[in-house]
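Figure 3 (text version): structure tokens given as input.
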């Protein structure tokens, strides 16, 4: 198999499979979250795959990301949810993006965009039910709702959605889940009493969608699970069958023997206790390989695991080919798989080695990696899978 110097391969059929599985298992329309370049998987290509698999909505953080999706030809519903004061909401409003207000100041900004764009906005309201991140505090909610209703009554916008975000969805037994859901139901009641009739009420991210059926409401916002990664390690039924979409691979730049007692990389944090063979992998923290992976994570070379030795540098790191017996069979130019199907490590294994979550591992990958999308036709049985009423998990 020909491998570039260093590349990220993204399997769009896997993205489609995952999006279909999420819709089946949750029996709820899915918003595929494609923010942050689709968690490092490529926003435009993944958005297209998500739509092909039936995604009713796409979700992004910034207005700019939503505008990029429109510029790439996406005409479906898109929600954007994080702005700063002074931002111009006009292009997003003009492009029919659903925008999110947290405050009355946001409503003023949307009103200005409506005047400039000459079309009413699609507006969603976010309430903070306990994450203490974005969204209106419950104390400010009645006021925001009243102002939003007034703007709807005079034709500035239509309030299309009301939503919130969970803090502890990956810990299904955490009491915050029930507390946030109750607060959300209360906020919805306040909004409805004020005359709002949102099309979509939504609360759940991937983990909430899969683990908490009562949090699904009208729409589930799935990011990580759409890319085939596990949003709640240890809690999901493997029968869910999500397929990781990303493979990360490179070619060994160099292979050389190392004598007993010789040390590797900056700071000499690892020293060979016996003679071995090391290989040089031509990517580093500039490509998003965590520096913390030094002496902790592994890669696959020739079907066996090779541990990283010494610290990860900006452009490169060193792996121990002797440790697993891969050394003698290995030559410069051989393929090294950083993340991929077994026996290669998963993004989750990298996360555990580095003390983080798989979200951070995949999202940060970039730099000088080439990225290629593989798009093969779906298996015939993908297309006629029955609409499940399964509620997992
Ligand atoms: C990123 C994000 C999501 C997606 O979360 P996952 O855990 O990746 O499914 C959903 N909603 C909001 C508001 C987000 O910021």
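Below: residues designed for each position.
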């Amino acid at each position: 198999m020909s491998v570039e110097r260093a590349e990220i391969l993204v399997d769009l059929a896997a993205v489609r499979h995952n999006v279909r599985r999420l819709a089946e298992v949750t029996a709820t329309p899915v918003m595929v979250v494609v923010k942050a370049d689709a968690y490092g998987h490529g926003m435009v290509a993944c958005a297209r795959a998500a739509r092909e698999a039936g995604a009713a909505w796409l979700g992004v953080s910034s207005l700019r990301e939503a505008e990029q999706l429109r510029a790439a030809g996406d005409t479906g519903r898109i929600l954007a949810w994080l702005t700063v004061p002074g931002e111009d909401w006009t292009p997003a409003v003009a492009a029919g993006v659903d925008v999110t207000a947290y405050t009355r100041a946001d409503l003023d900004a949307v009103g200005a965009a409506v005047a400039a764009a000459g079309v009413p906005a699609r507006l969603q309201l976010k309430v903070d039910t306990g994450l203490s991140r974005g969204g209106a505090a419950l104390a400010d909610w009645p006021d925001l709702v009243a102002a939003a209703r007034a703007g709807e009554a005079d034709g500035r916008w239509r309030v299309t959605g009301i939503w919130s975000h969970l803090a502890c969805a990956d810990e299904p037994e955490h009491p915050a889940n029930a507390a946030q859901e109750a607060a959300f139901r209360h906020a919805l009641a306040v909004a409805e009493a004020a005359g709002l009739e949102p099309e979509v009420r939504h609360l759940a991210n991937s983990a909430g969608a899969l683990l908490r059926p009562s949090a699904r409401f009208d729409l589930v916002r799935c990011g990580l699970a759409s890319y085939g990664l596990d949003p709640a390690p240890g809690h999901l039924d493997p029968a869910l069958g999500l397929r990781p979409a990303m493979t990360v691979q490179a070619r060994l730049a160099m292979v050389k023997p190392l004598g007993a007692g010789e040390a590797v990389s900056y700071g000499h944090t690892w020293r060979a206790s016996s003679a071995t063979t090391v290989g040089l992998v031509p990517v580093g923290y500039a490509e998003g390989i965590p520096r913390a992976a030094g002496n902790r994570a592994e890669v696959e070379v020739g079907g066996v695991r090779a541990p990283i030795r010494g610290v990860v540098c900006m452009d490169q790191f060193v792996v121990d080919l002797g440790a697993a017996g891969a050394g003698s069979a290995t030559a410069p130019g051989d393929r090294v798989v950083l993340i991929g199907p077994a026996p290669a490590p998963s993004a989750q294994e990298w996360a555990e080695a580095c003390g983080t979550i798989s979200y951070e591992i995949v999202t940060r990958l970039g730099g000088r990696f080439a990225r290629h999308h593989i798009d093969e036709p779906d298996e015939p049985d993908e297309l006629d899978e029955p609409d499940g009423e399964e509620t997992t998990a």
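The chain has a mean pLDDT of 95.
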